[in-house]
Design brief:
metal ion binding; five-stranded mixed sheet; lyase activity; about 30% helix; Rossmann fold; about 20% strand
């Protein structure tokens, strides 16, 4: 086992200025890693919350830092925003007198397929899969072509792992195939929708339920809603199950640690 006891781990999350529940999973992931005692320091920084990315180097004493993006995809934020804010110019950068290693995001880890399938099994354990269409939902953006890749890859892996489903579709909030058109792509009586997001926050608790058609745009935080306790929904002539986001899985702490080891195998 690699000795990381002299290094720091910086977990980077998106955060939100609109939903107070969005940052919860990130703190859980950091706590899970901290309990392992592998790193001298474990810190969090956010793009949309405090502490911000620009404060990261002021928080960390260690001279060697591993940065793991707690993001779903290799896209706009992981390839452009985080490197810009942390002044990174490659896999390893010496900046502000510290050696910084930039690891792959959690969402491309092989464990994601298992976690997504677990969400389905927990929310719709008795569903007839041959009568069911499975939708994996990501954000999507025109800012970076790679943003959709993780969602498409996971949909393909789920289709391979569970061929008994009638169909498995990658869908998006802001790109085709749009999740709001889910019923147009569902030829089965049942549908299961899995949000491929870290947090049960603004998107999974508010935006996607509105796009699916079973919620109004109330703007309430997650702690005040019972979205997942109401399954299944009878809507648009279908029986729809909606799962929680993948970020609540305890396994995410192990994934973060594994991405550090993946970086070391590939670059050190």
């Amino acid at each position: 086992m690699t000795d990381l006891s002299h290094t720091a781990l910086l977990i980077v999350g998106h955060g939100s200025t609109e939903n107070p529940d969005s940052s919860g999973p990130y703190f859980d992931h950091a706590a899970a890693v901290r309990e392992k005692g592998l790193f001298a320091e474990v810190h969090l920084a956010f793009w949309k919350e405090e502490p911000s990315l620009r404060e990261a180097f002021y928080m960390i004493d260690a001279e060697e830092i591993y940065v793991v993006p707690d993001f779903i995809s290799e896209g706009y934020f992981t390839q452009e925003v985080i490197p810009r804010e942390l002044e990174l110019d490659g896999p390893t950068t010496v900046v502000h007198g510290k050696t910084v290693h930039y690891c792959p995001p959690v969402g491309i880890h092989p464990t994601m397929t298992t976690i997504l399938s677990r969400r389905v099994e927990q929310e719709a354990p008795d569903i007839r899969r041959e009568d069911t269409t499975l939708f994996v939902v990501g954000h999507g953006t025109a800012l970076n072509d790679n943003t959709t890749r993780a969602v498409k890859d996971q949909a393909a892996l789920l289709a391979e792992r569970f061929p008994e489903f009638a169909a498995v579709h990658p869908t998006f909030m802001e790109q085709e195939m749009f999740i709001e058109d889910w019923d147009k792509h569902c030829e089965t009586p049942n549908a299961v929708v899995v949000p491929f997001f870290i947090a049960d926050g603004l998107h999974s608790y508010q935006d996607i339920p509105v796009l699916l058609g079973f919620e109004e745009d109330e703007g309430l935080p997650a702690s005040q809603k019972d979205i997942f306790r109401q399954n299944p929904y009878q809507i648009r002539g279908k029986t729809l199950y909606y799962t929680s986001a993948i970020g609540i899985e305890p396994a995410l702490g192990e994934v973060i640690i594994d991405q550090v080891h993946t970086f070391r195998e590939n670059h050190l």
